[in-house]
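Internal QA ticket QA-208
Title: Verify multi-chain structure generation after dependency bump
Assignee: T.L.

Test input:
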Amino acid sequence: MSDTAHIEVTVNGRHRSLDVAVHHSLLDALRDDLRLTGAKECCLVGECGACTVIMDGRTVDSCLVLAVEADGAEITTVEGLSPDGVLTPLQQAFLDRGAAQCGFCIPGQLMSAEAFLRDTPNPTREAVEEAIAGNLCRCGGYEQILDAILVAAAAGRP
Amino acid sequence: MHTFAYLRPDTVAEAVAILEAHGPDARILAGGTDLVIRLRDGSATPAVVVDLKRIAALAPGIREEAGRLAISATTVMTDISADPLVRRHFGALADAASVVGSVQIRNRATLAGNICNASPAADTAPALLVYDATVVAEGPAGSRRIPIDAFFVRSGVTTLARGELVTAIELPIPAARRGAVHERRTRRRGHDLASVTVCCCVDQTRVTRLAYGSVGPRPVLFTDDTGTLANPSADPAERTAILERMFAGASPSARSMRASPEYRLAMLRVLGARALAGAIERLAAGSD
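Actual output:
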Protein backbone atom coordinates (compact mmCIF):
# COMPACT_ATOMS: atom_id res chain seq x y z
CA MET A 1 0.00 0.00 0.00
CA SER A 2 1.33 3.42 -0.78
CA ASP A 3 0.04 6.97 -0.87
CA THR A 4 -0.09 8.70 -4.19
CA ALA A 5 -0.11 12.38 -5.05
CA HIS A 6 -1.04 14.31 -8.13
CA ILE A 7 1.66 16.53 -9.59
CA GLU A 8 1.90 18.93 -12.49
CA VAL A 9 5.35 19.35 -13.97
CA THR A 10 6.86 20.78 -17.11
CA VAL A 11 9.41 18.36 -18.50
CA ASN A 12 11.52 19.43 -21.47
CA GLY A 13 9.00 22.15 -22.25
CA ARG A 14 6.00 19.82 -22.19
CA HIS A 15 3.36 20.01 -19.48
CA ARG A 16 2.83 16.67 -17.73
CA SER A 17 0.13 15.69 -15.28
CA LEU A 18 1.02 12.64 -13.19
CA ASP A 19 -0.07 10.54 -10.25
CA VAL A 20 3.06 9.47 -8.38
CA ALA A 21 3.68 7.33 -5.33
CA VAL A 22 4.88 9.71 -2.62
CA HIS A 23 7.86 7.50 -1.86
CA HIS A 24 9.05 7.51 -5.47
CA SER A 25 11.88 9.79 -6.51
CA LEU A 26 11.85 12.28 -9.34
CA LEU A 27 14.24 9.87 -11.07
CA ASP A 28 11.64 7.07 -10.77
CA ALA A 29 8.96 9.34 -12.22
CA LEU A 30 11.15 10.41 -15.14
CA ARG A 31 12.34 6.94 -16.01
CA ASP A 32 9.34 4.76 -15.18
CA ASP A 33 6.34 7.05 -15.60
CA LEU A 34 7.57 9.31 -18.41
CA ARG A 35 9.94 6.80 -20.05
CA LEU A 36 12.73 9.36 -20.15
CA THR A 37 15.64 7.03 -19.48
CA GLY A 38 18.47 9.50 -20.17
CA ALA A 39 18.97 10.24 -16.47
CA LYS A 40 20.56 7.13 -15.00
CA GLU A 41 20.01 5.32 -11.73
CA CYS A 42 23.33 4.46 -10.12
CA CYS A 43 24.51 5.23 -6.58
CA LEU A 44 21.16 6.45 -5.18
CA VAL A 45 22.94 8.46 -2.49
CA GLY A 46 23.75 11.68 -4.35
CA GLU A 47 27.41 10.95 -4.95
CA CYS A 48 27.72 9.88 -8.59
CA GLY A 49 25.55 12.45 -10.38
CA ALA A 50 24.36 10.00 -13.08
CA CYS A 51 20.77 11.08 -12.34
CA THR A 52 21.47 14.83 -12.66
CA VAL A 53 18.66 16.91 -14.18
CA ILE A 54 17.97 20.64 -14.17
CA MET A 55 15.07 21.62 -11.92
CA ASP A 56 13.93 25.26 -12.01
CA GLY A 57 17.27 26.29 -13.46
CA ARG A 58 19.49 24.35 -11.07
CA THR A 59 21.02 20.91 -11.19
CA VAL A 60 19.76 18.32 -8.72
CA ASP A 61 20.43 14.66 -8.12
CA SER A 62 16.98 13.42 -9.14
CA CYS A 63 17.45 10.31 -6.96
CA LEU A 64 17.36 12.59 -3.89
CA VAL A 65 14.26 14.54 -4.89
CA LEU A 66 10.86 13.01 -4.24
CA ALA A 67 8.67 13.16 -7.34
CA VAL A 68 6.02 14.94 -5.30
CA GLU A 69 8.53 17.69 -4.41
CA ALA A 70 8.78 18.49 -8.12
CA ASP A 71 5.12 19.50 -8.23
CA GLY A 72 4.97 22.78 -10.18
CA ALA A 73 8.61 22.62 -11.24
CA GLU A 74 10.22 22.92 -14.62
CA ILE A 75 12.55 20.02 -15.38
CA THR A 76 15.08 19.61 -18.17
CA THR A 77 16.58 16.18 -18.79
CA VAL A 78 19.25 15.27 -21.31
CA GLU A 79 16.46 14.46 -23.78
CA GLY A 80 15.49 18.14 -23.63
CA LEU A 81 18.88 19.48 -24.74
CA SER A 82 18.28 18.90 -28.44
CA PRO A 83 14.58 18.30 -28.97
CA ASP A 84 14.89 18.65 -32.73
CA GLY A 85 17.69 16.09 -32.90
CA VAL A 86 20.44 18.60 -33.70
CA LEU A 87 23.20 18.30 -31.12
CA THR A 88 24.07 21.37 -29.06
CA PRO A 89 27.65 22.68 -29.27
CA LEU A 90 28.23 21.12 -25.84
CA GLN A 91 27.03 17.69 -26.96
CA GLN A 92 29.03 17.99 -30.19
CA ALA A 93 32.15 18.90 -28.18
CA PHE A 94 31.68 15.77 -26.05
CA LEU A 95 31.59 13.70 -29.26
CA ASP A 96 34.51 15.50 -30.89
CA ARG A 97 36.72 15.20 -27.82
CA GLY A 98 35.93 11.55 -27.15
CA ALA A 99 34.46 12.50 -23.80
CA ALA A 100 31.94 9.66 -23.87
CA GLN A 101 33.52 6.26 -23.32
CA CYS A 102 30.95 3.83 -21.90
CA GLY A 103 28.55 6.78 -21.87
CA PHE A 104 26.68 5.94 -18.67
CA CYS A 105 27.64 9.13 -16.81
CA ILE A 106 27.33 11.40 -19.84
CA PRO A 107 23.68 12.52 -19.44
CA GLY A 108 24.54 13.72 -15.92
CA GLN A 109 27.82 15.29 -17.04
CA LEU A 110 26.00 17.15 -19.82
CA MET A 111 23.33 18.52 -17.49
CA SER A 112 25.92 19.73 -14.97
CA ALA A 113 27.95 21.32 -17.76
CA GLU A 114 24.85 22.87 -19.37
CA ALA A 115 23.71 24.54 -16.14
CA PHE A 116 27.26 25.61 -15.32
CA LEU A 117 27.95 27.23 -18.70
CA ARG A 118 24.68 29.16 -18.59
CA ASP A 119 25.90 30.88 -15.40
CA THR A 120 29.63 30.93 -16.18
CA PRO A 121 30.35 31.68 -19.81
CA ASN A 122 34.15 31.94 -19.53
CA PRO A 123 35.21 29.40 -16.93
CA THR A 124 38.69 28.37 -15.84
CA ARG A 125 39.56 24.68 -15.96
CA GLU A 126 39.58 24.67 -12.17
CA ALA A 127 36.04 26.06 -12.07
CA VAL A 128 34.89 23.35 -14.47
CA GLU A 129 36.49 20.71 -12.23
CA GLU A 130 34.49 22.02 -9.30
CA ALA A 131 31.32 22.24 -11.39
CA ILE A 132 31.46 18.53 -12.27
CA ALA A 133 32.83 17.31 -8.92
CA GLY A 134 29.42 15.74 -8.32
CA ASN A 135 29.56 13.68 -11.51
CA LEU A 136 31.68 10.56 -11.38
CA CYS A 137 32.99 8.80 -14.49
CA ARG A 138 34.01 5.21 -13.90
CA CYS A 139 35.89 5.16 -17.22
CA GLY A 140 38.07 7.93 -15.86
CA GLY A 141 37.39 10.16 -18.86
CA TYR A 142 37.63 13.36 -16.86
CA GLU A 143 40.31 15.03 -18.98
CA GLN A 144 38.26 14.62 -22.17
CA ILE A 145 35.10 15.75 -20.38
CA LEU A 146 36.85 18.87 -19.06
CA ASP A 147 38.28 19.55 -22.52
CA ALA A 148 34.85 19.22 -24.11
CA ILE A 149 33.25 21.63 -21.65
CA LEU A 150 36.02 24.19 -22.19
CA VAL A 151 35.70 23.82 -25.98
CA ALA A 152 31.95 24.45 -25.75
CA ALA A 153 32.58 27.43 -23.48
CA ALA A 154 35.11 28.89 -25.92
CA ALA A 155 32.56 28.44 -28.73
CA GLY A 156 30.31 30.71 -26.73
CA ARG A 157 27.26 28.55 -26.07
CA PRO A 158 26.55 25.41 -24.08
CA MET B 1 11.93 3.14 -0.59
CA HIS B 2 10.11 3.00 2.73
CA THR B 3 6.51 4.20 2.39
CA PHE B 4 5.10 7.11 4.37
CA ALA B 5 2.40 9.75 4.32
CA TYR B 6 3.60 12.98 2.67
CA LEU B 7 2.28 16.19 4.17
CA ARG B 8 2.88 19.67 2.82
CA PRO B 9 1.60 22.19 5.37
CA ASP B 10 1.05 25.84 4.41
CA THR B 11 1.92 27.34 7.78
CA VAL B 12 4.45 26.85 10.55
CA ALA B 13 1.57 26.30 13.00
CA GLU B 14 0.25 23.40 10.91
CA ALA B 15 3.73 21.89 10.68
CA VAL B 16 4.18 22.19 14.45
CA ALA B 17 0.80 20.49 15.05
CA ILE B 18 1.78 17.59 12.79
CA LEU B 19 5.19 17.24 14.44
CA GLU B 20 3.66 17.35 17.90
CA ALA B 21 1.02 14.76 17.04
CA HIS B 22 3.48 12.30 15.48
CA GLY B 23 6.61 12.90 17.55
CA PRO B 24 9.42 10.60 16.46
CA ASP B 25 7.20 9.08 13.74
CA ALA B 26 7.43 12.32 11.77
CA ARG B 27 10.47 13.55 9.89
CA ILE B 28 10.99 17.01 8.44
CA LEU B 29 11.85 17.29 4.76
CA ALA B 30 13.72 20.40 3.63
CA GLY B 31 16.42 19.70 1.05
CA GLY B 32 16.14 15.93 1.40
CA THR B 33 19.81 15.28 0.70
CA ASP B 34 20.10 13.29 3.92
CA LEU B 35 16.50 12.25 4.56
CA VAL B 36 15.81 10.69 1.15
CA ILE B 37 18.95 8.56 1.48
CA ARG B 38 17.79 7.37 4.88
CA LEU B 39 14.24 6.69 3.68
CA ARG B 40 15.71 4.56 0.93
CA ASP B 41 18.21 2.62 3.03
CA GLY B 42 15.67 2.06 5.81
CA SER B 43 17.62 3.85 8.54
CA ALA B 44 14.69 6.29 8.86
CA THR B 45 11.18 4.83 8.81
CA PRO B 46 8.85 7.72 9.62
CA ALA B 47 5.08 7.33 9.27
CA VAL B 48 4.87 10.94 8.14
CA VAL B 49 7.20 13.15 6.11
CA VAL B 50 6.56 16.88 6.55
CA ASP B 51 7.76 19.01 3.64
CA LEU B 52 8.49 22.59 4.71
CA LYS B 53 8.98 24.03 1.24
CA ARG B 54 5.44 25.36 0.72
CA ILE B 55 5.37 27.34 3.98
CA ALA B 56 5.54 31.00 2.94
CA ALA B 57 7.13 32.11 6.24
CA LEU B 58 10.03 29.68 5.67
CA ALA B 59 10.61 30.56 2.00
CA PRO B 60 14.27 30.80 0.98
CA GLY B 61 15.75 34.12 1.99
CA ILE B 62 18.52 35.92 3.80
CA ARG B 63 17.63 39.26 5.35
CA GLU B 64 19.18 41.78 7.67
CA GLU B 65 17.11 42.97 10.61
CA ALA B 66 17.96 44.61 13.92
CA GLY B 67 21.69 44.02 13.60
CA ARG B 68 21.28 40.36 12.69
CA LEU B 69 21.33 38.34 9.51
CA ALA B 70 18.47 35.84 9.43
CA ILE B 71 18.75 32.80 7.16
CA SER B 72 15.39 31.09 6.68
CA ALA B 73 14.96 27.35 7.15
CA THR B 74 14.71 26.42 3.46
CA THR B 75 17.65 28.52 2.24
CA VAL B 76 20.10 26.33 0.35
CA MET B 77 23.90 26.25 0.49
CA THR B 78 24.27 27.64 -3.05
CA ASP B 79 22.43 30.82 -2.06
CA ILE B 80 24.25 31.15 1.26
CA SER B 81 27.69 30.89 -0.32
CA ALA B 82 26.77 33.47 -2.99
CA ASP B 83 24.94 35.96 -0.77
CA PRO B 84 26.71 39.35 -0.60
CA LEU B 85 25.75 39.97 3.06
CA VAL B 86 26.93 36.52 4.15
CA ARG B 87 30.17 37.00 2.23
CA ARG B 88 30.71 40.46 3.70
CA HIS B 89 30.06 39.68 7.36
CA PHE B 90 30.40 35.91 7.63
CA GLY B 91 32.98 34.93 5.02
CA ALA B 92 33.93 31.65 6.69
CA LEU B 93 30.28 30.53 6.62
CA ALA B 94 30.11 31.33 2.89
CA ASP B 95 33.30 29.30 2.42
CA ALA B 96 31.94 26.39 4.46
CA ALA B 97 28.64 26.39 2.55
CA SER B 98 30.54 26.39 -0.75
CA VAL B 99 32.24 23.04 0.02
CA VAL B 100 29.23 21.05 1.20
CA GLY B 101 28.82 18.04 -1.11
CA SER B 102 28.69 18.85 -4.82
CA VAL B 103 26.87 21.52 -6.84
CA GLN B 104 23.80 19.27 -7.02
CA ILE B 105 23.82 18.78 -3.24
CA ARG B 106 24.37 22.48 -2.52
CA ASN B 107 21.42 23.32 -4.76
CA ARG B 108 19.14 21.33 -2.42
CA ALA B 109 20.82 21.08 1.00
CA THR B 110 19.73 23.66 3.57
CA LEU B 111 21.69 25.22 6.42
CA ALA B 112 18.87 24.30 8.82
CA GLY B 113 18.99 20.68 7.64
CA ASN B 114 22.76 20.62 8.05
CA ILE B 115 22.52 21.55 11.72
CA CYS B 116 19.36 19.54 12.48
CA ASN B 117 21.01 16.35 11.25
CA ALA B 118 23.71 17.23 13.77
CA SER B 119 26.37 15.31 11.93
CA PRO B 120 29.69 15.75 13.74
CA ALA B 121 31.15 16.44 10.28
CA ALA B 122 28.64 19.19 9.37
CA ASP B 123 30.72 21.67 7.39
CA THR B 124 28.81 24.74 8.50
CA ALA B 125 28.77 23.98 12.23
CA PRO B 126 32.24 25.35 13.18
CA ALA B 127 31.53 28.61 11.34
CA LEU B 128 28.13 28.98 13.05
CA LEU B 129 29.85 28.35 16.41
CA VAL B 130 32.56 30.98 15.96
CA TYR B 131 30.02 33.49 14.64
CA ASP B 132 27.81 32.88 17.69
CA ALA B 133 24.70 31.91 15.71
CA THR B 134 21.27 31.54 17.25
CA VAL B 135 18.80 28.89 16.17
CA VAL B 136 15.22 30.15 16.06
CA ALA B 137 12.76 27.32 16.78
CA GLU B 138 8.99 27.27 16.74
CA GLY B 139 7.09 24.70 18.75
CA PRO B 140 3.86 23.97 20.62
CA ALA B 141 4.94 26.38 23.40
CA GLY B 142 5.80 29.14 20.95
CA SER B 143 9.06 30.48 19.65
CA ARG B 144 12.43 30.19 21.37
CA ARG B 145 15.99 31.09 20.56
CA ILE B 146 18.72 28.52 21.13
CA PRO B 147 22.42 29.48 21.12
CA ILE B 148 24.09 27.24 18.53
CA ASP B 149 26.51 25.91 21.17
CA ALA B 150 23.51 24.63 23.16
CA PHE B 151 21.88 23.08 20.06
CA PHE B 152 24.16 20.13 19.25
CA VAL B 153 24.11 17.07 21.51
CA ARG B 154 25.63 14.25 19.49
CA SER B 155 25.35 12.75 16.01
CA GLY B 156 21.72 13.05 14.93
CA VAL B 157 20.57 14.53 18.25
CA THR B 158 19.82 18.18 19.00
CA THR B 159 18.11 19.97 21.88
CA LEU B 160 14.96 20.52 19.80
CA ALA B 161 11.92 19.29 21.73
CA ARG B 162 8.99 17.27 20.40
CA GLY B 163 6.98 19.36 17.97
CA GLU B 164 9.72 21.93 17.43
CA LEU B 165 11.19 22.92 14.10
CA VAL B 166 13.90 25.37 13.11
CA THR B 167 12.48 28.41 11.32
CA ALA B 168 15.69 30.40 10.91
CA ILE B 169 19.33 30.72 11.86
CA GLU B 170 20.43 34.17 12.97
CA LEU B 171 23.90 35.64 13.00
CA PRO B 172 24.76 38.82 14.92
CA ILE B 173 26.46 41.37 12.67
CA PRO B 174 29.64 42.30 14.54
CA ALA B 175 30.53 45.77 15.72
CA ALA B 176 34.26 45.02 15.76
CA ARG B 177 36.30 44.12 12.70
CA ARG B 178 37.38 40.51 12.48
CA GLY B 179 38.96 37.88 10.31
CA ALA B 180 37.78 34.29 9.99
CA VAL B 181 38.87 31.22 8.05
CA HIS B 182 37.27 27.83 7.44
CA GLU B 183 39.52 24.83 6.75
CA ARG B 184 38.67 21.22 6.08
CA ARG B 185 40.41 17.97 5.28
CA THR B 186 38.80 15.44 2.98
CA ARG B 187 40.01 12.18 1.45
CA ARG B 188 39.61 13.53 -2.02
CA ARG B 189 39.17 16.92 -3.62
CA GLY B 190 35.69 17.71 -4.85
CA HIS B 191 32.88 15.84 -3.22
CA ASP B 192 33.56 14.22 0.14
CA LEU B 193 32.65 14.41 3.82
CA ALA B 194 35.16 16.14 6.05
CA SER B 195 37.65 14.13 8.08
CA VAL B 196 38.37 17.30 10.04
CA THR B 197 36.63 20.66 9.79
CA VAL B 198 37.88 23.81 11.57
CA CYS B 199 36.89 27.45 11.76
CA CYS B 200 38.81 30.22 13.51
CA CYS B 201 37.81 33.83 14.04
CA VAL B 202 39.95 36.60 15.49
CA ASP B 203 38.49 40.02 16.20
CA GLN B 204 39.82 43.51 16.75
CA THR B 205 39.54 43.13 20.53
CA ARG B 206 41.95 40.16 20.23
CA VAL B 207 39.39 37.52 21.14
CA THR B 208 39.99 34.26 19.29
CA ARG B 209 37.20 31.75 18.75
CA LEU B 210 38.10 28.34 17.39
CA ALA B 211 35.63 25.58 16.59
CA TYR B 212 36.09 22.18 15.04
CA GLY B 213 34.11 19.16 14.00
CA SER B 214 34.39 15.61 12.72
CA VAL B 215 36.71 14.75 15.62
CA GLY B 216 34.11 13.82 18.24
CA PRO B 217 30.40 13.30 18.80
CA ARG B 218 29.59 16.99 18.22
CA PRO B 219 31.32 20.12 16.94
CA VAL B 220 32.92 22.15 19.75
CA LEU B 221 33.89 25.77 20.39
CA PHE B 222 36.76 27.26 22.41
CA THR B 223 37.44 30.91 23.15
CA ASP B 224 40.71 32.61 24.06
CA ASP B 225 40.14 36.09 25.45
CA THR B 226 43.67 36.57 26.83
CA GLY B 227 44.77 38.00 23.48
CA THR B 228 47.63 35.49 23.27
CA LEU B 229 46.41 33.50 20.27
CA ALA B 230 45.48 36.66 18.41
CA ASN B 231 48.99 38.00 18.82
CA PRO B 232 51.42 36.29 16.40
CA SER B 233 54.43 37.65 18.29
CA ALA B 234 53.31 36.31 21.69
CA ASP B 235 55.43 33.57 23.30
CA PRO B 236 55.12 30.55 20.95
CA ALA B 237 55.11 28.12 23.89
CA GLU B 238 52.17 29.95 25.45
CA ARG B 239 50.28 29.99 22.18
CA THR B 240 50.89 26.28 21.64
CA ALA B 241 49.75 25.53 25.19
CA ILE B 242 46.44 27.33 24.60
CA LEU B 243 45.91 25.57 21.29
CA GLU B 244 46.67 22.21 22.92
CA ARG B 245 44.02 22.90 25.58
CA MET B 246 41.58 23.66 22.78
CA PHE B 247 42.46 20.51 20.85
CA ALA B 248 42.05 18.41 24.00
CA GLY B 249 38.30 18.61 23.35
CA ALA B 250 38.69 16.26 20.41
CA SER B 251 37.76 12.59 20.79
CA PRO B 252 37.58 11.06 17.31
CA SER B 253 35.89 7.69 16.95
CA ALA B 254 38.00 4.69 15.98
CA ARG B 255 35.01 3.29 14.09
CA SER B 256 34.78 5.93 11.38
CA MET B 257 36.02 4.70 8.03
CA ARG B 258 37.06 8.14 6.75
CA ALA B 259 40.20 8.57 8.84
CA SER B 260 41.90 7.10 11.89
CA PRO B 261 41.77 8.98 15.21
CA GLU B 262 45.55 9.53 15.02
CA TYR B 263 45.29 11.11 11.58
CA ARG B 264 42.37 13.31 12.59
CA LEU B 265 44.16 14.59 15.69
CA ALA B 266 47.31 15.30 13.70
CA MET B 267 45.34 17.13 11.00
CA LEU B 268 43.32 19.05 13.60
CA ARG B 269 46.58 20.62 14.81
CA VAL B 270 47.69 21.45 11.29
CA LEU B 271 44.34 22.92 10.22
CA GLY B 272 43.81 24.68 13.55
CA ALA B 273 47.15 26.47 13.28
CA ARG B 274 46.48 27.26 9.62
CA ALA B 275 43.01 28.66 10.35
CA LEU B 276 44.38 30.78 13.20
CA ALA B 277 47.16 32.21 11.04
CA GLY B 278 44.71 32.84 8.21
CA ALA B 279 42.21 34.57 10.51
CA ILE B 280 44.93 36.89 11.86
CA GLU B 281 46.00 37.67 8.31
CA ARG B 282 42.46 38.45 7.22
CA LEU B 283 41.90 40.69 10.22
CA ALA B 284 45.11 42.56 9.41
CA ALA B 285 44.10 42.84 5.75
CA GLY B 286 40.74 44.24 6.79
CA SER B 287 38.71 41.58 5.00
CA ASP B 288 36.53 39.12 6.85
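Spot checks passed. Residues 28 and 150 of chain A are 32 Å apart (CA to CA).
Status: verified.
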